[in-house]
Amino acid sequence: MRYEFTAPLWQYAGAGGWHFVSLPKKMSKEIRKLLRSEEQGWGRLPATARIGQSEWKTAIWFDTKQDTYLLPVKGEVRKSEGLIVDKSFSTILWL
Hints:
Layout: E1 2-11, E2 19-22, H1 25-35, E3 44-51, E4 54-63, E5 68-72, H2 75-81, E6 88-94
Antiparallel strand pairs: 1-2, 1-6, 2-5, 3-4, 3-6, 4-5
C-alpha cells in the first residue's frame, strides 16, 4: 500500500530528541483499520519511506496520545534533504 502526504518535521522534547513526522489522522485511521492485525509490538508497522531522493527501510509507530502514526526521520535523511523542524515536506510511505 502506498501513501503520500505533506507534514512538518518535529522533534521530541524528551531524552534523545528524536525527529518525527506525524501521519495525517484520517490516513492513520485508515491504516489502523486495515493493518492493525499486522502491527508488531507497541503498534509498530514495518515500512519503506521516501523523502526527496532519500529512501529507507523503517517503521511507523502508533502513538495513542496523538491518535496517529509517527514516522521517525533519521539524521542522515534530515541532513541530505535539508529538513528543518516545523517545515513541511512531502513523504511517500509504503506499507
